Amino acid sequence: MPPQRVFALPRQQSLLLPAVLNPFVLEQKITKAEKIKCALLGLVLLPLRSVWLILVCLVTWPLATLVTFRMPLKGAVEPMKGWRRFVCRTVIAALGRMYFFGLGFRWVVKGKQADSGFLRCLQPVLVSRKDPDSRKNTIKEIESRSTSGGVWPQVLIFPEGTCTNRSCLISFKQGAFIPGVPVQPVILRYPNKLDNVTWTWQGPSSGTLLLLTLCQLYTTVEIEFLPTQIPTEAEKKSPYLFAQKVRGVMAEALGVPVTDHTFEDCRLMISAGELTLPMEAGLVEFTKISRKLDLKWDNIQKELESFAAIANSCKGGRIKIEEFANYLKIPVTPVLQELFNLFDRDGDGTIDFREYVIGVTVLCRPANTEEVIQMAFQLFDTDDDQSISREEFAHMLRSALGVCDLNVTKLFKDIDADGSGHITYSEFRTFALTHPQYAKLFTTYLELQRYQALKGEDQDFLSSYACARSDDSQEESTSDKKDD
């Protein structure tokens, strides 16, 4: 068991673990009795429903083709009018209900909708995650339709933007809230014993869920219209605030927590799997982390690759201090233990990817300034010849880490890019910038030098370090809280 840690200041609550660690995975266990029930019902329901769905599609397809004849394939220049509008809003809508009825859905509607088929008939706002202009065009189209004064029908938006296991509400995309017009939240519930509708990134396939649905006597869905949310002046200026409020209202009605996971977490989850890490390793609540620490997608993706380089030998994708020391090519010492503890936010003796991203950003990158790198280089270069020899390098690290028999051969070779046997400032700077974990070690030693100079006492390294760390811990915690 790792020793209990006591922080100089409490960690900021905003970067603690979310209520739901992974909303993108569903572990579905079907009992033997449920399998038998599905098989027996499927013998009768599956052929009947298949025929029904085929007939509905055969009627809907020519109607949809007629309604959309000579209409643009991408987007919609103007809303449908005349007979096209009538067919879409009555006939196609009725066929859509018949299709869901054929799937076995029965719906219960609660509340009242505010006044105000085939996909192209609905004139959707198409979004492409690969097109860099898609987001801007989508927001523009949503704003145009929602402020059209009834020319366009009401806009239905699924603000999470991806599929989850329904255990929480993840971050809402801001597009629906940018126009600053009233929004009516609509929540869906599926109060069925067997979950045959939840489709996530990792879990039952769409084909499996469709088969389960067709083999049920019926599937109940409750649709509840919540009171319309009217934005305040502050929320009109800040779509983020408006989105947060609406999400809170919906979460309270559903009785589930909220987290700041987004679709970008799914991308990181997939990337983690490609790097042979557990897929859950990539879940960091991207929106929250990137907003508070001013990080971009490319930065976090790069840190994931760096994390994988350390954790590739760890089961479960969590770094222990031994792997951390091996990566830095230095032994486990009290100084390294303290650095490791600053990363290990929950004090469980391991670092996950979320803690690693926060640690590198808050603790290391701000310390890796040009001034710090120059001062660290000057400390190594004891003979002022503008290069660091192996002996100078070893002496410095032995002093900094408090280890007399430290072997620095591997680390020295990594920094000495040209193999000349001496480290130039350019090589030292490049290594420091690409390995930010060393920055805290450099600054720790600089603080120790300042402390000893001020005190004028030749103390044992560890006792001096313990005194110096109280200030450093406060500095770390203060910097850790700077975005709160």
Strand content: under 5%
**Unreliable runs, pLDDT <50, ≥5 residues?**
1-13, 457-484
* Element-by-element helix/strand order: HHEHEHEHHHHHHHHHEHHEHHH
Rg: 30 Å
Mean of residue pLDDT? 80
Compute the separation of the termini in Å: 32 Å
Give the helix proportion (percent range). Answer: 40-55%
| Total beta strand runs | 5
Question: What does the secondary structure layout of this molecule look like, with pairings?
Answer:
Elements: H1 32-67, H2 82-103, E1 105-110, H3 134-146, E2 186-189, H4 206-214, E3 219-225, H5 233-237, H6 239-254, H7 263-274, H8 286-293, H9 297-311, H10 321-328, H11 334-343, H12 353-364, H13 370-380, E4 387-389, H14 390-401, H15 409-415, E5 422-424, H16 425-434, H17 437-455, H18 461-480
Parallel strand pairs: 1-3
Antiparallel strand pairs: 2-3, 4-5
Task: Please explain how this structure is put together.
This protein is mainly alpha-helical and 484 residues long. The protein has a domain at 32-159 and 179-234. The protein contains 18 helices and 5 strands. The chain has helices spanning 32-67, 82-103, 134-146, 206-214, 233-237, 239-254, 263-274, 286-293, 297-311, 321-328, 334-343, 353-364, 370-380, 390-401, 409-415, 425-434, 437-455, 461-480, and strands at 105-110, 186-189, 219-225, 387-389, 422-424. The strands form 2 sheets. A 3-stranded mixed sheet has the order 1-3-2. The two termini are 32 Å apart.
